[in-house]
Amino acid sequence: MSYNFDREIDRRGSGSLKWDKYRDTDILPMWVADMDLPMADEISHAMSQRMEHPFMGYTVATETTSAAVCDWLRSEFDWDVSPDHLVWLPGVVPGMWAACAAVGAPGDEAVFSTPIYHHFFHVPGQGGKTAKPVPLLREPSGRWTYDFDALNAAMSARTRLMLLCSPHNPTGTLFSVEEQQRMAQLCEAQDLVILSDEVHNGLVLSESNKHVPLAKAYPACRDRLITLMSPSKTFNLAGMQCAFAIIENPQLRRQYIQAMHSVLPQPATLAFTALEAAFTHGKAWHDGLIAHLRKNHALLETAIAAMPGLSMSPMEATYLAWLDTSALGVENPMGFFETHGVGLSAGADFGRADFLRLNFACPQPQLELALTRMRTAIESR
Ligand SMILES: Cc1ncc(COP(=O)(O)O)c(C=O)c1O
Q1: What is the whole-number distance in angstroms between the Cα of residue 92 and the centre of ligand 1?
Q2: What's the pLDDT tens digit per position in 65-121?
Q3: Which stretches does DSSP call E strand in the chain?
Q4: CATH fold of 56-281
C-alpha cells in the first residue's frame, strides 16, 4: 500500500487540541507534538473490527499485544524484552510521574537537562521530588548535548533520579551510544535510578544513525533503568493514551507498580487495539512517514536558512524544529508569528524564552504556507 502524506484533511471541529487553540482564527497551528497526518489505515481498520464486538469492559493486554511490542523492539532495536518486564500505562507523562513517586523519599532530587519537554519541570514535584534542571551544552555546530561536568556538579547526596529524553525534545538531538554510555556511567557512580523517556524513538531523520535504546547502549545499567515508550508519536496516536514502561529489575518494577496502584488506570480497550495494530502492521506506513518527514525537514532547513534573524538547530530526530530567535529583535517571538498567522510553541515552556519550536509533521503545502507567512512576518519588521 502507498500512503499520501501530502493530502490536507480539515481537522477543525474534531476536538483537536492543536487546531482548537486557534479556532475561528486564521492562525496555522504548528505547535503541539501531534502530526497533521492521518494514522495508518491498518490501525483504523483494526479499531473498526474491534467495535463489532459489543463489549468494552475492563481490558488487559493480551499475549498478542505484548508479543507485538516485544517483536517491534526486537526488529527495530535488536532488543530482547520479556513480556513480564512490560508495565502498561495510560501515557508517557503518567509514567514519568510514577517513576518520581516510586523512587526515593520526599524531598529527594531528580536531575534533568534543559531545554526539555515541559512536563519534566513538573513531574518531580508531583511525585514529591525536587526538580534540578541543568542546561545542555551547545556544540559549535549548534547541536545540543549533555554537560557532564555541570550535571556532576549539580548532584547532591539527595539526588536519586536522572530523567532523560532520548531522542531529545525540543532540540532534535539523537544521542550517540558514547554519549549514552557516559551518561549511564555518571548515574552509576552516583547510584541513581534512570528514567529514559524514549517516546521519540521511531522518528529518526538522520540517514546514518539509528536510535539505540539506553538498555542496549549500556546494558550494565538495566538494573537501575526505567524505559518509557509508546506508539503515540511514531504512529500519531497521542489521543489513544497507550504507553508502557520496560523495567527489568523486579524490585524496582514492584515499587513502580505500587506507586501507580489506585492512581493510574490501564490503557483503554481501543488503545490496546491501536497499539497492537501499529506495531504489527504499521511498518510500511512508518517507512513512508520517515521519507515524508525527511522531505519536510529539508524544505524547512533551506527556508529557515534564508530568514534573517532565525536559525535552526541541526537535528537528527523528531519532527520538532528548535528555532533560535535571539537575533530576530522582537520581544515576544510567539506572539509576533501568531500575528502573522503561524502558531508555534513558546521556547519559554521548555526553559528557553529566546527559542520557538516548530512542528513540521504536516502535508507539505501546509508547511509551505506557514513558511511563506513567517517570511512575510520577518520582512515586515
Ligand atoms: C518527550 C516526551 N514525553 C512524553 C510526551 C507525551 O507523552 P503522553 O502523551 O503519552 O503522555 C511527549 C509529547 O510530546 C514528549 O515529547
Answers
A1: 6
A2: 999 999 999 999 999 999 999 999 999 999 999 999 999 999 999 999 999 999 999
A3: 28-29, 86-89, 109-114, 130-135, 137-138, 144-145, 159-165, 193-197, 225-229, 243-246, 311-312, 320-324, 342-343, 345-346, 355-359
A4: Aspartate Aminotransferase; domain 2 (3.40.640)
